[in-house]
Design a protein that fits this description.
This protein is α+β, with helices and mostly antiparallel strands and 76 residues long. The protein has helices at residues 16-20, 53-57; strands at 4-6, 26-32, 38-42, 63-65. Bound molecules: iron/sulfur cluster (2 copies).
Length: 76
Amino acid sequence: MDKIKFRSERCKGCGLCVIACPKDVLKIGAELNRAGYPVIEITDMESCTSCTFCAEICPDVVISVFKKMGDKKGGK
Ligand code: SF4
Ligand code: SF4
């Protein structure tokens, strides 16, 4: 399952999430959304820790972060 998802049509390409990400896995891509803004991409989903910093800093609520289920039940 993807750890993060983007509502790309809302992204304004401001880059705040890129700065906020401690794992440096976000970048402004070459693709433009319908409003003409470059949209955010993740370069390495495996390295994302689901810390939510990117989602918290985004002023346009573009990013949703999903945490792995089952960590508290002793499963992997
Ligand atoms: S959840 Fe954390 S590690 Fe993952 S992309 Fe966002 S800021 Fe980076
Ligand atoms: S902070 Fe939000 S609006 Fe800005 S580049 Fe990141 S996802 Fe897009």
